[in-house]
Design a protein that fits this description.
This protein is of the alpha/beta class and about 350 residues long. The chain is about 40% helix and about 15% strand.
């Protein structure tokens, strides 16, 4: 089976983990949009690239995200979003005209960053053109349906952990050891991640609670970076702000240093950062969002999305006995151990095989 993939995201290990396992089933993976060093030229060549790949025997495209069709300058010149949308629809029409099957993995109900003039319309067109829509949870299908997006065929395939699951004896048990309780946000920093709310909630904790906070992750938004730096600078508590990318080899040590991981998202369909934290046995605090509802209750504390709710959740875990955190840690390990990338790859391979079968 030959699978064409769009786009290639080197900053996200999801594709490497998925396709690394799918290759064991004989799948040949080829990424689209990389013909030349020029982003713009690659974008212009997208339809012709499909023609060439189809002539070479490819019959299926696996689409993850659509950001490869964004045009430089669209944030300053909104008409470029209309141009990008029109070109994407040309690409989609070309794919259908060539008889290439389309599998779309809807990692997010709507894009976290605006790319087209009408992202919702594009989502509906993609779903209508897709032979299969893969989601990571049933709640995603519900949210898509609420927007009028009902796939012809769909499959629920879970999101796996981003690193091999480590046993409970491999990392420090959270809550054990001297010093303050250590609270961590880890992941790419963007406005929808709610890091500003975490800083505000942490500042509102009672003064007698012994805790510190680390916010670690790449932030490419200069205005957000400045705002978070100002907020952290006004904190009366210990706050570490590191808004650069963490080398892969340092991630496990960073997570081991934390007693609690907090992901205060304003919106989320799924979260690789949540799986990463649980795979390292870290108790997790998240808002009560549909996209996070399938995380198990015994390793997650949920709050109502308000600052007061987040402050209360933080206080409870900071004050919790070490045995409570240890039980949550063990539950996180157990949950992630049951989610295997080999199984995920086999589920994806089976769905693609059905799509390509003569009966489809």
């Amino acid at each position: 089976m030959k699978v064409l993939v769009l786009p290639r995201d080197n900053s996200n290990p999801y594709q490497a983990l998925l396709y690394g396992e799918m290759r064991r089933h004989g799948v040949q993976v080829s990424y689209l949009g990389l013909l030349t060093p020029s982003y713009t030229l690659n974008l212009l060549l997208m339809p012709l690239e499909l023609v060439a790949k189809r002539m070479a025997g490819a019959r299926l495209v696996h689409l993850h995200w659509t950001y490869n069709f964004r045009l430089y300058g669209s944030s300053r010149f909104p008409f470029l979003r209309r141009v990008a949308q029109a070109w994407f629809l040309v690409w989609l029409w070309t794919l259908q005209a060539l008889g290439i099957r389309l599998v779309w993995t809807a990692h997010n109900v709507l894009p976290m960053h605006r790319g087209f003039a009408d992202d919702l319309q594009v989502r509906r067109r993609v779903a209508a053109a897709s032979d299969m829509v893969i989601v990571h949870s049933r709640s995603t299908l519900v949210q898509l349906a609420e927007l009028g997006i009902v796939p012809r065929k769909s499959a629920i395939i879970p999101h796996g952990p981003y690193t091999p699951t480590l046993g409970p004896d491999s990392l420090r048990t959270p809550g054990v050891g001297p010093g303050p309780r250590r609270v961590l946000f880890f992941g790419r920093v963007a406005p929808y991640k709610g890091v500003d709310n975490l800083l505000a909630a942490f500042a509102a904790l009672p003064s007698d609670l012994d805790a510190d906070l680390a916010i670690v992750g790449e932030c490419n938004d200069s205005s957000l970076k400045a705002a978070l730096t100002a907020l952290a600078g006004r904190s009366r508590r210990g706050v570490k702000l590191d808004l650069e990318r963490v080398p892969d080899g340092e991630v496990a040590q960073l997570l081991e240093s934390a007693d609690v991981v907090v992901l205060p998202y304003r919106q989320s369909t799924t979260s690789g950062s949540a799986m990463l934290a649980l795979s390292h046995g870290r108790p997790l605090v998240v808002p009560d969002l549909p996209g996070l509802s399938e995380l198990p209750d015994d390793c997650v504390v949920r709050y109502d999305g308000t600052l007061a709710g987040l402050t209360n959740a933080l206080a409870n875990l900071i004050l919790a006995d070490a045995s409570v955190l240890a039980k949550m840690s063990a539950a996180g390990y157990a949950y992630c151990s049951a989610i295997n990338w080999s199984v995920i790859a086999k589920m994806t391979f089976d769905e693609m095989t059905r799509i390509l079968s003569p009966e489809h």
